[in-house]
Amino acid sequence: MDYIGVASRALKDVGGKDNVKSVVHCATRLRFVLFDKSRVDKDAIQADKDLLGFVDAQGQSQIIVGSSVPNVYDALIPLLNKSDQASTEKADHSAEGEKKAGIIDRILATISAIFTPYIPVLASAGIIQGLLGITVTLGWLTAKSDTYKVFYGIGNAMIYFFPVLLAFTAAKQFKSNPYIGAVIGAALLEPNIAGFATGSKVNLLGIHFTAMNFSSTVIPILLSMWVYAQLEQFLRKHLAQNLQLIVVPVICLVFIVPLTLLVFGPVGSAIANGIADVYKMMLHGNMVLFQVVFGGFFIFVIMFGMHWVLLPIQLSILASQGREYSLAAGGMGNYALLGVCLAVLIFSKSKEERGVAGSAAFVNALSGITEPGIYGILIRNKKYFAAVALGGMAGGLVHGLTGTYVTAFAFSGILGSPAFISSPKAVPYFIGVAVAIVVGFLATMIMMKTTKTTKRTKRIV
Q: Where is the active site (predicted)?
């Protein structure tokens, strides 16, 4: 693939470099924030054989590239940096773009920008922990050995120190100094502060509060970073320029860390506990229905970018309880889509469609990346949406009947399988995977054969 050529066409199709406010990439997509979305040439993007499609979601204009997106992104950045006009973001232009984006879009875009950089690393941590669990199960290592402790530390570091990393990207997204944000997150894990036993009473400047453990937390950090950003912006606006270099960090640190301990921690914990209570009520109310719904429809939630609302909740529950049910069932739609792609690969009469299906099936089976299948197969043949839903629901049904859960976060596919193999529910999990693939495959095959029979009957008539 000519990455420079693809990047140049993509840039032209979103309205040129002067229309780009910012751009990042995830596993398969270029995610543009544009000044004027009306300048996007969607037809040109859809017609480009090197691109898989276009989605407008989460306040972003997203071009689906596929697994080669890092290379295209690397080729794109120099094209943007060559701009002689525009790295300048005119205030009125930017304000106009902000007005066009709805509040929900802006919230989703913010959550997406905060969490996107960490998802691959979280998945990698889950795989490492899964592999480690397998070695213990097979008797190759013991949990008390030094080797186990070293590799456990590697897999657990991302999860334990998540507040530090989350504070960095959240502060950056809220337009404040990310390094000060990271120090605030690190302070909460510093041994003198983290050493307070959870639930114990602590006296801070005469104010008594209940200590809590901030490792792996999400909501308290997001709250503290938003308030920190407001405080920093206020100080930079009202303090003399020559005082800001030292005074702003000092004030922010000595105010935000205690406030997080006293206010944001308890409030965030209360919100998290409330969400967890609702989650438990739904789960225990009807586990089978819960798993079936997630199995059949979570892949469509991902399509529209709404998973960024649910994922932080799922990760918080996984971190606090050590197990999570919806992540297990939610992955079944990915495998149902794999079944759809395999059926199209085998039974389609179109050489081009078989090529797309084969490529989509490969990346899905290997690493759980679904965009090529979604935009290369499903969007162009919308009847297969039913096959994906049926396959996902069938896999979710198996999980609901067996009470299947996961103990680590990872992508679906072969590369992520160690994280699931190490789970106590590994056997029913992979039975659900097989059922989802088979049902997705059979449903697609029946649809394709039914369509051919109908066409043949029409010709005879």
A: 26 (phosphocysteine intermediate)
| Beta bridge mates, 64 | 29, 53
The pLDDT of residue 381: 82
- The whole-number pLDDT of residue 94 equals 44
CA dihedral 23, 25, 31, 33 (to 10 degrees): -20
Q: d(Cα 34, Cα 40) in Å, to the nearest integer?
A: 9
What is the model's pLDDT at position 178? 93
Closest CA to 408 of 132, 111, 28: 132
Domain boundaries, the chain: 3-77, 104-270, 286-458
CB 408: neighbour CB atoms within 10 A?
Answer: 27
Distance between CA atoms of residues 363 and 123, nearest Å: 16
> What is the spatial distance between Cα 338 and Cα 330, in angstroms, rounded to a whole number?
14
**If DSSP codes are grouped into helix, strand and coil, which group holds residue 57?**
strand
Q: Cα–Cα distance between 160 and 319 in angstroms, integer?
A: 9
Cα within 13 Å of Cα(21), Cβ side: 19
CATH topology of domain 3-77: Gyrase A; domain 2 (3.30.1360)
CA 218 to CA 316: how far, in whole Å? 7
Distance CA(258)–CA(43), nearest Å, equals: 53
* 68, two tokens: 């080669």
252 is catalytic: no
Residue numbers in the chain where pLDDT is lower than 70: 27, 58-59, 82-106, 108, 304-306, 308-309, 452-461
CA dist 217 and 235 (Å) reads: 28
Q: Which amino acid is at 64?
A: I
- DSSP labels, 81-130: HT-SSTT---HHHHHHHHHHS-HHHHHHHHHHHHHGGGHHHHHHHHHHHH
Q: Cβ distance 395 to 332 under 8 Å?
A: yes
Provide the CA 315 distance to its chain's centre, in angstroms: 10
Structure tokens at 95: 């304000």
Task: Round to whole Å and give the CA distance between 54 and 29.
Answer: 9
Longest pairwise C-alpha distance within the chain: 89
CA distance 122 to 419: 11
Identified catalytic residue from 4, 26, 301, 438: 26
DSSP secondary structure code for residue 197 in this structure: P
pLDDT reported for residue 103? 67
Closest Cα to residue 397, out of 285, 293, 280, 281?
A: 293
